């Protein structure tokens, strides 16, 4: 079950907005064989120009879903975000399921659903980078063992330019990153130095 933790900045989160978000996010559960027991972190901001921004992050054991949308209508923004999250799931479903089947044929991470033949995939907008020279935000997360290909998938789903992970092959901490030419780079650590 996906539970929503909703936080508003410069806006009061009304019951109507809360119910709309919970209803839309709960529809994502149909894409998984066992509905993940997790929290969807929802941030709602409003700006002085009447525009609002909604951001949803759903961290799960083997996958992190994230999308954001700016819109004058918060309800429309939530609808657009859920569409983005569904596209992320559909886009990566086959690749991730293939990896899980190679390791454990009985286990499927995603539910078997028919894909809409007319469904288009668009890349999520890149986050705007903060160019300040001081730390304005700190995050703590557990590094998961995976190979570099899985790390690139996770990085692209998050819409980030880099991703830190435990390399399954070397058992060390590694970083994949997107280069300016659109290709990917890998930084591996060496414990023997």
UniProtKB/TrEMBL annotation:
Domain Sigma 54 modulation/S30EA ribosomal protein C-terminal span(s) in chain numbering: 135-186
CDD domains reported for this sequence: RaiA
SUPFAM superfamilies: Ribosome binding protein Y (YfiA homologue)
GO cellular component: cytosolic small ribosomal subunit
Record GO biological process: negative regulation of translational elongation
Subcellular location: Cytoplasm
Keywords, comma-separated and alphabetical: Cytoplasm, Translation regulation
GO MF: ribosomal small subunit binding
Assembly: Interacts with 100S ribosomes.
Function: Required for dimerization of active 70S ribosomes into 100S ribosomes in stationary phase; 100S ribosomes are translationally inactive and sometimes present during exponential growth.
Family assignment from sequence similarity: Belongs to the HPF/YfiA ribosome-associated protein family. Long HPF subfamily.
Protein name per Swiss-Prot or TrEMBL: Ribosome hibernation promoting factor
Protein's organism: Salinicoccus sediminis
Gene (UniProt): hpf
């Amino acid at each position: 079950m996906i539970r929503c933790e909703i936080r508003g900045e410069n806006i009061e989160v009304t019951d109507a907005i809360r119910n709309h978000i919970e209803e839309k996010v709960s529809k994502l559960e149909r894409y998984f064989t066992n509905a993940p027991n997790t929290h969807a972190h929802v941030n709602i901001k409003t700006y002085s120009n009447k525009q609002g921004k909604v951001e949803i992050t759903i961290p799960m054991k083997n996958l992190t879903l994230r999308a954001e949308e700016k819109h004058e209508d918060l309800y429309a923004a939530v609808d657009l975000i859920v569409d983005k999250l569904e596209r992320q799931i559909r886009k990566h479903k086959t690749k991730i399921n293939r990896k899980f089947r190679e390791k454990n044929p009985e286990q499927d991470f995603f539910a078997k659903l028919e894909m809409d033949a007319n469904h288009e995939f668009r890349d999520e907008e890149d986050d705007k980078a903060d160019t300040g020279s001081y730390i304005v935000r700190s995050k703590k997360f557990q590094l998961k063992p995976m190979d570099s290909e899985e790390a690139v998938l996770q990085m692209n789903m998050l819409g980030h330019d880099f991703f830190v992970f435990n390399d399954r092959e070397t058992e060390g901490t590694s970083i994949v990153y997107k280069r300016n030419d659109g290709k990917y780079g890998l930084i591996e650590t060496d414990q023997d130095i």
